Here is the input.
Amino acid sequence: MFILQEKFIWDKTYNLMIRKIFDHWMARRLQQMLEDVRERRDHLTIWLHPDIKKTLYIHWETDEGFKRRRLKNRANRTLARSSKYTSGSMTFIKTKARLSKSLDHEATMAETFKYTHTMKENKEKFAN
Here is the structure.
């Protein structure tokens, strides 16, 4: 099926799920790699042929639709609502401990989930 099967063994019933997870993470990695190229943080990039790299630079600099989407996405990330979950980089367990301290009782997993997935300004509205 794909390269992971050369190194790992799993039940064939999980093939579709594993493939979806693999594709998801590889797509995210490719996005990051292309962003590094676009932002010129790619001085060690040997995986991209120079002609293709030059063509990508031209596309990124001249395509109005791409520029518009890029600026819109950048603006959206700076909004207060841009963070999907509201606890930042703090782990779920650390968030649960802090929440327990503020509630004066051991926070349940459901309370912690609700706390991390609701909007800061309106705790009744979920972030996603």
Q: What stands out?
A: The mean pLDDT is 82. Residues 83-128 form one domain.
